[in-house]
Amino acid sequence: MAVETRKSTCNRDCPDACGLVADVENGRILSLRGDSEHPVTRGFLCFRTSRFPAMLDAPHRLTRPLLRRDGRLVEVDLEEALDVAASRLAAIRAESGPEAILHYRSGGSLGLLKGIADRFFEALGPCSGKIGDICSGAGEAAQVEDFGVSDSNDLFDLLEARHILLWGKNPKTSNTHLVPVLRDARARGARIHLIDPVRHKSAALADSVLHPAPGGDLALALGIGALLAARGQIDPAAAERCDGLEGYLALVGSREPAVWAELAGVSLAAIEELATALSAGPTAILVGWGMGRRRHGGAIVRAVDALSAITGNLFRSGGGCSFYFKRRAPFANEALSTGLTARRLREPLLGHDLLAADPPVRALWITAGNPVCMLPDSARVAEALEKTEFVVVVDPFLTDTGRRADLVLPVPTLLEDSDLLPAYGHHWIGESRPLVPAPDGVVHEVELFQRLASRLDLGDALAGSVDEWKERLLAPIAADGVTLDALRRGAVRSPTAPKVLFGEGRVRTPNGRVQLLSGVDPAALHAPHERSDTYPLWLFSNSTPESQAAQWARDPGERLLVTLHPDAAPAGAADGAHVVVESELGSLPARLCLDPAQRRDVAVVPKGGAFDRGLSANALIEAVPTDLGLGAAYLDCRVRVRLP
Ligand SMILES: Nc1nc2c(c(=O)[nH]1)N[C@H]1C(S)=C(S)[C@@H](COP(=O)(O)OP(=O)(O)OC[C@H]3O[C@@H](n4cnc5c(=O)[nH]c(N)nc54)[C@H](O)[C@@H]3O)O[C@H]1N2
Ligand SMILES: Nc1nc2c(c(=O)[nH]1)N[C@H]1C(S)=C(S)[C@@H](COP(=O)(O)OP(=O)(O)OC[C@H]3O[C@@H](n4cnc5c(=O)[nH]c(N)nc54)[C@H](O)[C@@H]3O)O[C@H]1N2
Ligand code: SF4
Ligand SMILES: [Mo]
Fold first, then answer.
1. pLDDT tens, position by position, 433-453
2. CA 127/CA 363 separation, integer angstroms
């Protein structure tokens, strides 16, 4: 059989939404690479997705539904699985109302059509859902408060920047296709400043690297503001473009820059350097998602936003304060979901809220997520699932969450998918189409929910082919040329995204003015320096190139890998030693990696790993919400590392 070249788009929870190109023979992928015609992908893929074809045959790949019988998960056919799902959902709804059914959907696929699950549970009830966002909740809420929207200048507008602040960001690992753009900007003369308590690979991209105290960024940003004010470097237009300038200036002026520097755990010279970078713009700030995952994460992002606004960089080409690309903006999202729910449980406290729910949640439906590994206080999440009467998990693979289900329904993987993929790291829209067919009996999620809907007499609420659903979502931009035909020729830039987001000098708040931060919780400033002799280290659970959250592209090993400065390691423990990482919540066996480039108060582990194998950092992390947006404060976790 001839070798055919096919194209698709990666649907992973990643900012890049890469164009994929595969050579396919006889329904098998011979090679997978990045699309060289895609302006952002530029012909390469990340470690984890370039190795994904091997996952199609992995032992935990699901090709048939699993149903719990006599305590064990056994394979059944799809008809039987859907009959069981429909009859249990119908019975629970009849007895306890749709409120007793909770639908939890995470970002395992960023395809818009995965929202068909939301539509199903709206039509069935509305049923219960979640509120909050463990990924970007605090940062997004902060930007919406300040700017009325969380969106970005065009990605390639970075080429106009003279300075770029990578604030809590590790693009070499988690936003790989930003790297060539940063290199190009640097070749055109931009200086890159990296601000992160952890030393990581992206330091190689930067002209200057600063390692502030964990969570010290609030003091750092306020200190930079104080220095800009003292130097008379506030943009004259700021008074007109911002509300609350007086309050902001009073806040930053409440301490000397040197005092802010000390609170941030940096030198005064470091604050001076960043203030100079911001006043010698255009200066772009790229705000990482990690910083928001702290108790005061919202305040931190607001303090960073303020720097961009008061220096005028926010409104300039080559400037901007980018946290997120508002990927859903151009679509008819209401065709899929109106967001109706019976009640909402808090995502960062899901384990707690499930156990405490009154009336109880009797059926829990989990789509595209692995909460047992990825939500904080994972032992409690696992307990909550085990205590729930009927748990359904929809996933291409068997995960720790699936192992606790009563029913597991397989779906296509990213190489077999068909969907629309706008990105959260640039403004190009891609379409995914199967590079290879899904295994026999594994159907698209649209069809899966349609078959369930017909068993539950939901009428035509979900009716339409996959392509018809795509066309409905594209309706508002079809006249601008974003059609399925166009997408099949290559990714198309969103016609609604301007090159410079706030180029007219106004933001999207009701009065068009930036809402500046003008007060902070004093506790937020002292948190970084709170000394704890019992738990002296801050646990960073950061992205690693080898995995997408809990989905590993290679075996993660027998033990959690923990990286420490040699001075922070237990006395006598050598590189590779077996150690134990302990928090107030739990402890995990680990393997030590010594790195003299790290701060002495940090411990770095991978962000996601298997809970049942003792590899999930979330067994150590308390479930605490962030100050804004109901995110999870994953990074405010203190640990100690000791010998076993
Ligand atoms: N390889 C890979 N790529 C991924 C993912 C993955 O799991 N693996 N996940 C994807 C997902 S879901 C998302 S949301 C994005 C994640 O995007 P990010 O959350 O930006 O990803 P990380 O690379 O973990 O980077 C977080 C960085 O924030 C830093 N940080 C933490 N606390 C602070 C602080 O107080 N101050 C400062 N200045 N920095 C701090 C951490 O040290 C770390 O370097 O990436 C996506 N890309
Ligand atoms: N300690 C710590 N915990 C964290 C973070 C951290 O930085 N530190 N980061 C947080 C962040 S940013 C995020 S986004 C979350 C991620 O949390 P999750 O989204 O729960 O993480 P994943 O392990 O990626 O789980 C996604 C699942 O979706 C499945 N999947 C893939 N494609 C499809 C599909 O098309 N349909 C369906 N139904 N399923 C599919 C995958 O096989 C996988 O099992 O984790 C959070 N947890
Ligand atoms: S995971 Fe991200 S970087 Fe990797 S192929 Fe997919 S979109 Fe590209
Ligand atoms: Mo995320």
1. 999 999 999 999 999 999 999
2. 10
Domains of the chain and any CATH numbers: 4-57 (3.30.200.210), 66-134+339-493 (3.40.50.740), 160-326 (3.40.228.10), 529-642 (2.40.40.20)
Tokens of 267: 């030198």
Q: 83-87 — which CB contacts under 8 Å span 24+ positions?
A: 83/455, 84/407, 85/392, 85/407, 85/409, 85/452, 86/452, 86/455, 86/456
Residue 540 CA, ligand 1 centroid: distance in Å = 10
Q: Which amino acid is at 61?
A: R
Which residues does 232 contact at the CB level (< 8 Å), separation at least 6?
A: none
Q: Quick check: bond before 282 cis, omega within 30?
A: yes
Distance of CA 425 to the CA centre of its chain: 11
The CA distance from 403 to 395, in Å, is 11
Q: How far is the CA of 200 from the centre of ligand 3 (A)?
A: 19
CA separation for the pair 51, 31 (Å, rounded): 10
- Which tens digit of pLDDT belongs to each residue from 181-239? 999 999 999 999 999 999 999 999 999 999 999 999 999 999 999 999 999 999 999 99
HEC string for 325-383: CCCCCCCCHHHCCCCCCCCEEEHHHHHHHHHHCCCCCCEEEEECCCHHHHCCCHHHHHH
- pLDDT bucket at 526, cuts 50 / 70 / 90: low
Q: Phi-psi region for residue 629, left (φ > 0), alpha (ψ -120 to 50) or beta? A: left
Phi then psi dihedrals of residue 551, to 5 deg: -100, 105
Query: Residue 530: its pLDDT value, please?
Result: 61
CB–CB of 198/216 below 8 Å? no
pLDDT in tens, 394-431: 999 999 999 999 999 999 999 999 999 999 999 999 99
Q: Find tokens 């992908």 and name the residue.
A: 41
pTM (2 d.p.): 0.98
Shortest CA distance to 588 belongs to which of 601, 578, 577? 578
- What is the 49 CA–ligand 3 centroid distance (Å)? 6
User: Is 55 near ligand 3, meaning CB less than 6 Å away?
Assistant: no
> CB within 6 Å of ligand 1 — which residues?
13-14, 48, 135, 167-170, 173-174, 195-198, 200, 214-215, 217, 288-291, 540, 542-543, 545, 547-549, 607, 635
